[in-house]
Amino acid sequence: MSNDVIHEENACPINGITELLSRKWVFGIVKDMFSGKKHFNEFKEGKPEMSNASLSNTLKYLEIQEIIVKNVLENDSQTVTEYTLTDKGLKMNMLLYEIVLYGLYVLEDNLRSEDYKNEIRQAYEEILNIDDSKT
């Protein structure tokens, strides 16, 4: 079997995913959404260096990519905006999980105790809805 196809123009899916993930705040926002955050100000929590403009631009980019959907809810005199993951966004769970594992056990292997790494891994398994049979 030849692997020449991976070198053909537009045949490599790595370019598309690299474009998506190369944006600075994409991972943090998507991770936040997996952990239950839905509102603009919630995404800013724990990211003091992220400007409102950067957050707004990243949310809009994720909408255009159909990773998230913006819902504007109106009840009585209050308007609330919520962001939720689409099916396409939810399918990022395994990708994020593999990146977490690579970070914990390869890039930063000696920075944490094994118990702490396992605790972090288990927390990500929970929020990313990782099935134990896949790990």
From TrEMBL:
Key words, A-Z: DNA-binding, Transcription, Transcription regulation
Molecular functions (GO terms): DNA binding
Source species, domain of life: Archaea
Domain HTH hxlR-type per the UniProt entry, residue ranges: 12-111
Pfam families in alphabetical order: HxlR
Protein name (record): Transcriptional regulator, HxlR family
